[in-house]
Design a protein that fits this description.
Helix content is 44%, strand content 12%. It is α/β, with parallel strands linked by helices and 212 residues long.
Length: 212
């Protein structure tokens, strides 16, 4: 599948529930986890805590630092715009599923949203583990068909005048959304700015400075 983007400006709303059925591999892992837990060899709560940490803290913090640097350094922002793979690697964030990156910048006129319509291609190097909803068929299909409605379900209602651009992540190219810098943050350093950037803001289902 090509990495072509899709422009959408409609807002037809459809109710849906995310499909949380396990894949064959997920089912095997779940079964193994159950057996080990029953034998007292692992603590499921500890496993959940580790996954939660990598999903929402360690991984996304890398991406947040990339965004904060782009907000603070116009030269880095331009490098990120023209060669995201190299710019991100310069901060030490490389690795599996992060070899080929593109950064897309939100503007007052355009909001970017990332999806993988085929499976769950995701930039692990900067965002950690993908959330369950990112892999769900409901999100993967409706993000392209009805992005405005999907964003509203995440609690993000955008002005009708703002264009929504949907990017289809692939095995060859993955995307990082650079959200708009919140107003009133001119005096903040990079660490403080990174605190304003959530994982969801870098996928496009939230904005910076708001709760994910």
């Amino acid at each position: 599948m090509s990495a072509d983007h899709h422009d959408h400006d409609h807002d037809h709303h459809h109710e849906h529930g995310h499909d949380n059925r396990y894949s064959d591999m997920q089912a095997r892992v779940k079964a193994l986890e159950t057996v080990l837990a029953e034998k007292g060899l692992i603590d499921p709560k500890a496993i959940d805590a580790i996954v939660e940490t990598y999903e929402t803290k360690i991984g996304p913090r890398n991406g947040a630092r990339v965004v904060a640097r782009a907000w603070s350094d116009p030269g880095f922002a331009e490098w990120l715009r023209t060669d995201a793979t190299a710019a991100i690697a310069s901060l030490g964030f490389t690795g599996r599923q992060g070899e080929h990156m593109r950064a897309v910048f939100n503007t007052p006129e355009t909001h970017n949203l990332v999806v993988c319509t085929l499976c769950s291609c995701y930039p692990w190097a900067v965002l950690g583990l993908p959330p369950v909803w990112y892999k769900a068929p409901a999100y993967r299909s409706r993000a392209v068909i009805d992005p405005r409605g999907v964003l509203a379900e995440f609690g993000l209602t955008l002005p009708e005048t703002k264009k929504i651009r949907v990017w289809d992540s692939t095995a060859e190219l993955r995307y990082l959304v650079v959200p708009e810098r919140p107003e009133g943050t001119d005096g903040l350093g990079e660490e403080a700015l990174a605190d304003l950037v959530s994982r969801d803001a870098m996928i496009g289902t939230a904005v910076a400075g708001a709760q994910p």
